[in-house]
Amino acid sequence: MAARLSRGAVPRANDGGNEFMYYIKTIDDRVRVPPAMFASVLEDAIGTILRERYEGRIYKDIGIVLAIASPKVVSEGNVIPGDGGAYYSIEFDALCFYPEVNEVYRADIKEIVEFGAFASIGPFQGLIHVSQIDKEKFYYDKKSRTLGSKALKRTMKKGDTVFAKVSTVSMKAMSSDTKIGLTMRPDGLGKPEWLMEKAPKKKVVAGKAAGAQSSEASDNKGAKKEDKKGEK
Q1: Residue 86 sits in which domain range?
Q2: Which of 22, 40, 56, 146 would bridge with 45, disulfide CB 3.0–4.6 Å?
Q3: The pTM of the whole model exceeds 0.85
């Protein structure tokens, strides 16, 4: 398999701006069509083989393949003596998902555990470690199965929607072995209501800054008047 060309990103509609979650890549490969499929339309037979071979599998360089489309035969069939099948060089488009470090996703919390929370991003789940939820320390409540902070009284539970950034990616052949780390510590991330809580504080600071600038301007005007009196 050789992924030789990326056709571009595929937007995911109504998903909070996750425009670069999915990619279409053109892949070159060589396929063996068994004698049992000789009666089928060649493109249909190859499409069936490719779906069985690729869909649902994870590759380090292109991520997980979700679907294949547009298989095209680019060579005549070759038969090897002693092998009843025919071999074809083909190319096809693959819809892939590969999370990149520093990409921001709108994710749903799927599970709360003592050491953090698992959140869905595309077909994978990433871990938001308890130390990466916020700058404030969070604690696990075993009874309610939630994570919460003491000072700001913030809580996170199963079913919540959050904005999180990918911090680490380790792609493995199996989905269960693939590890994706997420963080919400940077500004602008976290639960939407947490972001709304921060807005008023910024307005107050801006008001103080405006007042300080107005006071400074008045002082400067007063100083200029004094200078003019002294010149007279």
Answers
A1: 2-97
A2: 40
A3: no
CATH classification of the domain holding 139: 2.40.50.140
Residue 225 lies in a domain: no
Domain end marker among 55, 75, 97? 97
Gyration radius of the chain over CA positions: 29
Distance CA 20, CA 73 (A): 29
Q: Residue type at 69?
A: A
In a domain, 37, yes or no: yes
Do 183 and 189 meet the contact criterion of CB atoms below 8 Å apart? yes
Q: Which residues of 98-126 are buried (b: 16+ CB within 10 A; e: fewer)?
A: bbeeebbbbbebeebeeebbbbebbebbb
pLDDT digits (tens, 9 = 90+) for 74-112: 999 898 888 989 999 999 999 999 999 999 999 999 999
Can you tell me the distance from the alpha carbon of 136 to that of 138, in angstroms, rounded to the nearest whole number?
7
